Structures are given as C-alpha cells and as structure tokens.
Amino acid sequence: MFYFADAPTLLIELFTGQAAFVAYAFIVSLTATTFIFGGFMREQVCTYMCPWPRIQAAMMDEDTMTVSYRDWRGEPRAKLKESKADPSLGDCIDCNACVAVCPVGIDIREGQQLECITCALCIDACDEMMIKVGRPTGLIAYLTANDEPLERAGEPPRNMWKHLIRFRTIMYTTLWAAVGLGLLVALFVRPDIEVNVSPIRNPVFVALSDGTIRNDYDLRILNKHGEERPFHITVTSTAVDADLHVELQGIEGVIVLAPADDTYSQRVYLVADPGDPAGSRNRTEVRIWIEDMTSGDRAFVDTVFNGKAP
Ligand code: SF4
Ligand code: SF4
User: Fold this and answer.
1) Is 297 exposed, middle or buried (0-12, 13-18, 19+ CB in 10 A)?
2) Fewer CB atoms near the end CB (10 Å): N or C, the chain?
3) How far apart are the CA of 12 and the centre of ligand 1, in A?
4) Local structure of residue 239 (DSSP, 8 states)
5) Cα 41 vs. chain centroid, distance in angstroms?
C-alpha cells in the first residue's frame, strides 16, 4: 500500500543520488511556480507581489505625466450608434478596447490606479478606435493632474518642458545616473580572481606518526580571465613562530592550473612539521594566498590552523 508520508523517501530512492534529487526538486518547483504565477495568478503577481507600483506611486506628483483618461471629453459614454445620434454624449464609444489590451486588467476610465504600469497600450488602442470612428485622438493620453483643470476650463496645458525639467526629475535622473555609474565602476574594478576556503573539520587535524600535524582545506579559485592560468598557493601566519607549509592533494608542488572563466577546486593541506609551535597550539591564525603567475595579482583568505594542544 502507498502512504503519502512515504513519498519523500520514495522520491529520494527513485532518483539516483542526492544531486539528481536536487535537480528534480528544482524542476518540479520551477514548473509549479511558473504554472501558479503565470497561468493562475497572472496580473495579481504584478499587483500584489511586485514592488514597482508602490515605488512608482511614491515617485509621482501632480506634475508627473502619466496615462490618463480625458473624462471631461469622453463622458457620458455611449455606444457608437447612440453617440452618433446624440451630440451631447461624450467621445467614448464604450468599445472596451482599452480594457481588453490592458495587461493588468484595469479600466483607466475609472481614474489613476496603483496597478497601472504606464505601458500606454490603452492609448494606442483608443487612438486606433478614435481614428476608425473619425474622432480626434488623445481621449486617453499622457497628462498631468495639474493640466486637468486647465483642460476642463478650455485653456491650453502647461508647456511639456515645465513638467519634464523640475527639481524632482533632475534629482531622480541624478540618482539613477549615480547608481548606473556605481555599477559601471564596480564592473570595471571587480577583481579578476577570487579565492574561497572551507576548512575540513572532520577530523580537525591529522597527526602523522612522525609528529607532523596536518589540517585539510577545500580551496576554490575563481578565475575570471578568458584563458587558463597557473596559480601559486602559499600560506602566511600572524604567529611569528609558525612555519607552516602547503601541500596539495594529488599534485606535486604548489602550483595549480585554473581553467578559463571557471572555478577550480583543490584539496589543500597545511602542514606543521614536528617541533613547529603551531602544531602544539589549539589555534593559529593563518592566511592562504593565491598568486596569478601570469599577472602577479594576489588574493587571500583568512582561516585557522588547529594544532594538537598539550
Ligand atoms: S497604461 Fe497600460 S497598465 Fe495602465 S491602464 Fe493603460 S494599458 Fe493598463
Ligand atoms: S478605447 Fe477609448 S473609446 Fe473605447 S472604451 Fe476605451 S476610452 Fe472609450
């Protein structure tokens, strides 16, 4: 008999090994979230989960040009036939084209809404409809809240440049430019090599028969260059009496070849020869260095060497 409680264990046994299980778990979770968010929740994700509408609303003011409906021109709305028959009706022929194209499913004729992502699809849809029925375009257009009373009173709107060049817009432009510049600088000054070390703590140290004490580490070199590079691995310590040296698992010497644009992993041994004070101390602070032998660039990572305390 199959019990649901056994499902996780069965799944793990079904797939060969932990890596395969993790891969399948990713596939299942990605498929499920894509279906739920894209097929089921759809625009609700934009409205309730995306922070952008809140950020956009916080950045706007009465002079911000945004997608708006000229209700003083469109209302009272009526179907084309009635609208043609009665000149007192507005220009909106209630065709719902603006609602049908809206990716977040709102009706802009009800006024500004938080959900609006100002994609302007409703502007195009309405203009197309107005052209078809032979009425002026711009029933839905970019407007500011401050222009609305002017238009209602039949006065011309303010010059567009007065909306665009203001303290607020200059400040936002400067801020975004500074962020962009910061990212650009970070891109150019990023180090071309990185090193990472994970001490192996099971066991904490290995005591060899001749009195040598050895600690094991997993070292990862990130080579961001487009070609393979040799790296020299060394160790230093703040403890002046320590005289540790490096040995590499499966490699003669202390030079490794890191592949282009990739991470290279290597098991590294730090060794305290018999009589080295680091071997009989509980903790010794050490720094493991890598040196790119092509460019001379260096990187380090601090860690600890554990000895056999008396
Ligand atoms: S601008 Fe885009 S999101 Fe906003 S109401 Fe129009 S179609 Fe919808
Ligand atoms: S597309 Fe224009 S005319 Fe049609 S319903 Fe929307 S506002 Fe009215």
Assistant:
1) middle
2) N
3) 47
4) S
5) 22
124 lines ligand 2 (CB under 6 A): no
CA angle, corner 183, sides to 179 and 189, nearest 5?
140
Two tokens, residue 71? 């209700």
Query: Is any atom of ligand 2 closer than 6 Å to the C-beta of 102?
Result: no
Tokens of 163: 């909306």
Ligand 2: does its nearest atom lie under 6 Å from the Cβ of 233?
Answer: no
**In this structure, how many other beta carbons lie within 10 angstroms of the beta carbon of residue 206?**
14
CA-nearest residue for atom 3, ligand 2, is 92
Q: Which ligand is nearest to the CA of 120?
A: 1
Nearest CA to ligand 2 atom 1: 126
Question: Could you list the pLDDT tens digit for every one of the 310 residues in the chain?
Answer: 445 555 555 555 555 556 677 788 889 999 999 999 888 888 788 878 888 878 888 888 888 888 999 999 999 998 988 888 888 899 999 999 999 999 888 999 998 888 888 899 999 999 999 999 999 999 999 988 888 888 888 887 777 788 888 898 999 999 999 999 999 999 888 888 999 999 998 889 999 999 999 999 999 999 999 999 999 999 999 888 888 999 999 999 999 999 999 999 999 999 999 989 998 888 999 999 999 999 999 999 999 999 987 7
Identify the residue whose C-alpha is closest to ligand 2 atom 8.
92
Nearest Cα to 265, choosing from 216, 202, 212, 203? 216
Distance of alpha carbon 42 from alpha carbon 106, whole angstroms: 13
How many angstroms does the Cα of residue 105 sit away from the middle of ligand 1? 8
CA distances from 177 to 118, 169, 181, 226 (A): 22, 12, 6, 30
Which residue is closest in CA terms to ligand 2's atom 6?
Answer: 98
Q: Residue 237 is encoded by which pair of tokens?
A: 């310590």
Pocket of ligand 1 (CB under 6 A): 67, 101-104, 106, 108, 116-122
